[in-house]
């Protein structure tokens, strides 16, 4: 790292760092505003005007980081995809027979991801976005997650069902349940219920 000249006043030496912090904060606010705007209005109806209003920033700041609304969706989708892939790896490597409490913790982490990135996940599941990048991200993220869910099904049960469809069904259940969370459906109750339903299909010695 190149050091600032010793003769430069200390305040000026701090300026690049302060600028980076402000830039990172602006980017975080735009990303958060994008999620919130897509949640409120849906991706198709969301406007950049709404996003910058929620972020408390200018149009110029938005276009400094993103070409358009689609570009913002791509950025959110890449981040969401990485989280979903990590969840898939966690489930695939979970010791068998699966412990119900461990599975409930995993479901809780899925719900937390959905609460943050639900609007992005819904674009994928609705299958309405013809963008090849979004379709590729969906295949690389949702596909492994559905496969990981299918992999926990007890072999006796798996012999009587299509595992691919079963995995998609469990993923759809988790997605829908997470989307309906509200004051009269406590998160801990929804999480525990989903975990018990999945646990009922799992490999076990019982």
In short:
The protein is 74% helix and 0% strand. The chain has helices at residues 10-41, 48-55, 59-65, 69-92, 100-126, 132-151, 155-158, 163-179, 187-199.
Determine the oligomeric state from the structure: single chain
* Average pLDDT: 85
Provide the succession of SSEs.
HHHHHHHHH
Low-confidence stretches: 1-10
Radius of gyration: 21 Å
User: What is the number of helices?
Assistant: 9
**Looking at the structure, what is the overall shape?**
elongated
Number of strands: 0
Strand content: under 5%
General description of the model:
By secondary structure, the protein is an all-alpha fold. It is built from 9 helices and no strands. The protein has helices at residues 10-41, 48-55, 59-65, 69-92, 100-126, 132-151, 155-158, 163-179, 187-199. The longest helix is centred in the first third of the chain and has 32 residues, at 10-41. The N and C termini lie far apart (59 Å).
